[in-house]
Amino acid sequence: MPRTALATAALLLAATLSQAQTPAAPAAAASAPAAARPPVDPTAPKPFLEVIRGAKEQPGLFPIWRKDDKVWIEIPKEALNKPFLFSVNAANSIGERGLYASEMLGDDLAEWRRVGNHVQLIALNMKFRADNDIARLAVAQAFSPSLIAGGPMASAEHPDRKSVLVDASGFLLGDIPGLSTRLEQVYRLPYAPDRGNSFIEATRADAQLTTLTARMHFATPRIPAPPLVPAPVPVPTPPQATPDPRSMFFSLVYNFRALPEAPAAVRMADPRLGHFAESYTNLSDDLKVNPRVHLIARWRLEKKDPAAALSEPVQPIVYWLDKNIPAKYRESVKAGVLEWNKAFEKIGFKDAVVAKQQPDDADWDNMDAGHASIRWFTGADVGFAQGPSTRDPRTGEILDADIRMSDVFGRGSRRLASDDVLGLHSHEPASSVSAWGSDRSQQLLAEQSCSYAAEQGRELGFALDLLALRDGMDMNGPEAEALAQAVIKDTIMHEVGHTLGLKHNFKASTTVTQAQLRDKAWTEAHGISNSVMDYNAYNLPLKGEARATLTNTTLGAYDYWAIEYAYKTFPAGQEAAELARIAARSTEPQLAFGDDFDQGVGGPYDGFDPRANQFDLGDDPLAYAKRRLKLSQELWDRVQARPAAVGDDPLRNRRSIAAAFRQLDMSATTVSKYVGGLLAERVVPGVTTGPAFKPVDNAQQREALRFIASGLLASDSFRFKPEFLVTQTLDYNEWERGLPMSIPDGVAALQGRVLDRLMSPATARRLIEQSAYLPESQRKAAVSLGEVYGTLQGAIFSELKTGADIDRMRRSLQREYVRRLQAQLNRAANGAAVYADAFSMARWHATQLARDLRAASAKPGLSIETRAHLAETLDLLDSMLKATLTRS
Question: Global pTM?
Answer without folding.
Answer: 0.89
